[in-house]
Sequence to fold (397 residues):
Amino acid sequence: MTDQITAAAGAGTGSDVEAAVDAAVAEVAEGLGGLTPTLAVVFLGSGHTHSADTIAERVRHRLAPEHLVGATAGGVIADGHELEDQAALSVWAVHLPGASLTPLRYDAPVDPAESVDAEGRPQGVEWAEPPESADALLLLGDPVSFPAPAFLSWLGQARPQLPVSGGMASGAGEPGGNRLLLDDAIYDDGAVALALTGVRVRTLVSQGCRPVGSSYVVTSADRNLLQELGGATPVDRVREVYQAASPEDQQRMQAGLHLGTVIDEYKEEFGRGDFLVRGVLGAQQDTGALVVGDLIDVGQTVQFQVRDAPAADEDLRELLSRFASGGTPVAGLLFTCNGRGEQLFDEPDHDADLVRSSLGDLPLAGFFCAGEIGPVGSRSFVHGFTASVLAFDPVDA
Fold:
């Protein structure tokens, strides 16, 4: 028995389900060196959705984890490799001495778009709060049926300061098409989670954007309609930023403009990592207002953002450099957007390789998500086009 965290990751490819899971489990078992894992995490890539029960049972039989969680995905990650759009699965397991894990099941409301109650929770569902002692929450959800933004808003009120990391399953886009694993149960809707107690974890969220221009204070807004920035119309502010931008940033702005909302208004200066980034969805030419992919409040500080492969690479590298200065983690989970990967970076394994090269060759697994979950500041959100990392630090860190 060891009093240190020990983790391992493995992958299996090909349409032969038993061969794939056996290959992944063999790697994990070797890495654990005979230790019983506290937690096993399984991500099922293309072609393995309907074998979820077989795969989960085989992992439990071979590794005997105390808890198991997992989800279906369009692509999976194991150590430094990203296995996209192929029959593949990844298994990650960790021995967490002294830790306590609480499995949580969150049902989907009958209508995810229905009105919410005063606490921001969709009506007609009962969601259990994680234990007061929890240090973090690992959350996997179905994007079709589970209102993750409403859930995180509710949880942020019920358990402020609790970091939530995870992602939305991406194996299918139709109702009932995904699978979520939790211990010996399998679901096709809602969400599953594990509350982690007695662990030292850190989180990182790279939103893949870079601020451009100056920051502005919102002086008029109506829900997600941004009407005025510092006394001028948002469209006029966009023109100002565009005219002052480099030719490269002008091209990025034309390709897609984003808006970052400052999370911590008490900071004197704002830079990378200080904004919650949302897309600019459109403009009203008659009023000069902008439609944004989130609610905006008067008094908030915002700044326009640009995103492309170089910006996403630069953002992740800088944040990982800062992260590494806080110590070397011993294991990690990576939740990256299904819009990243080779189609964004034009090379395989970008995010997984960069995480491991920056933080050491830590056992790493994850998947390509239809929405990534992670904290920005003290609150957790659902993101798009991001890379979210949940890292486990040594016991004596």
In short: Residues 135 and 189 are 26 Å apart (CA to CA). The mean pLDDT is 93. The radius of gyration is 21 Å.
